[in-house]
Amino acid sequence: MTNKKPVDFKLSIEASGFDIYSPIEVGDASLWIPTIQLEALLRDGLIGHNLAGLALRTRSKVVKQAVCTALGYPAPNSFKKTQPRFFGQQLDVYTQKSRNLQIWNEELSPTRRYALIQISQQDIITEVRVVNGQELANLDTTGTITTKYQAGLVTGDESHELISNFDTPEFFPFLNSNAVLSGAINPISEPQPNSLLPIQEIFNRLSPLVGCQFADPGIDQERNRGEGLHRLVCEYLGYSSYEDKGQFPDIRHQLLEVKLQTSPTIDLGLVLPSSAENVDVQQLGGYHPKHRDTRYVVFYANTDGRVVTLTHVYVCTGADFFTRFRQFEGKVSNGKIQIPLPSKFF
User: Fold this and answer.
1) 20 to 30 A Cα–Cα from 197, which one of 13, 16, 25, 97?
2) Looking at per-residue confidence, does 135 or 219 come out higher?
3) Peptide bond connecting 249 to the previous residue in cis, omega within 30 degrees of 0
4) pTM of the predicted model, to two decimals?
5) What separation in angstroms does the CA of 47 have from each of 18, 33, 67?
C-alpha cells in the first residue's frame, strides 16, 4: 500500500488550490486519492452527520459539501451538473436509505468511483463505501445492467494452462521474482514497483491449487464461494493475511483478477480484459497500468453442493485473454440501472 496516509492526500489537495472540477491524472501520486484512502476520508468526514429535517435537494447539497470538506476541496455554493459530479476524483455520490441503488440515464463507468452513503431511518449518516463501476456491475444479480461482457470457457485436455508465457512488455520494469509478500503486506494494497511477481511465478505458485477443496456455501452465496478461493490464492501466493474489499482486481497488490467458474460462462463486467483503458490503481513509476496488463487466473471447479473441487487453472494477461476464451457478442444499454445492494454491503 502507498505509504501515504489518507490525510496526506487531503492536505495536498488543500495546498493545490484545486476545486472539484480541476482535472487530475488518474494515479497521480499526490492528488489522486486511491480508493481505499478515499473511503477512509469520507468515513471520517461524514459518519455521524445529522440530516434530519432537510428537504431532499437540500440534503443532497449538504452531503456534497461535506464530501468536499472531507477531501480537502473548497465547498461551492452550488454544484455544476458534471458527470461525474466530483470530476477531479472521478467520483459520484449516492445517499442510500434503502438497499436499492438507482442510477439514471448513464451507463456505469468501470473507472468511475461511486461513494454510497448509508443514511439511517433517523437521517444520520452511518456508513460509507466507495466502489468503482466494475465492482457495482458485479453486484447486479437482476440483469438490469445489460452492458456487461461475457466469455466462454471450454476445458481442454490439460488441467494447467499458462496462456501467457510473459507479462505485457510495459510491466517488465516492475517485476520481481523474489518479491516478499509476507509480513504486513496486504493483498488489497496498491501495487508497487518491484513488488509484482512475473506471471510465470504466479502460475507456478497457484498451480498446486488444482485438486484442492473448500466448503460450498451454496449456489445463492456466490460471493462467499469466491471468498473461499481468494483465501487460498492469497495463501499460496505467499501473503500472511487475507482481505477482500470487492475491488477490481481482486489481488490488487499483484494486479491479479481471480475467477471461479462452475459453469462455462465467464462474467467480465463492464470492460474487456484486452482493453487499453486505465485500471483504477496508482501509477507504477510513471506508467499507469491498463486492463490489458492485468493478470487473470481462472479456476474451473466442480461442486456437489457441499464441497467445491478445483479441477483446472488458466493464467494469462488481459491482452491474451481472448486467445483462449471466446468473447460473446452483444452489448446494449438501458436508461435506468437498479442494483439491490447485498445485506452486508455496508
Assistant:
1) 25
2) 135
3) yes
4) 0.72
5) 25, 19, 11
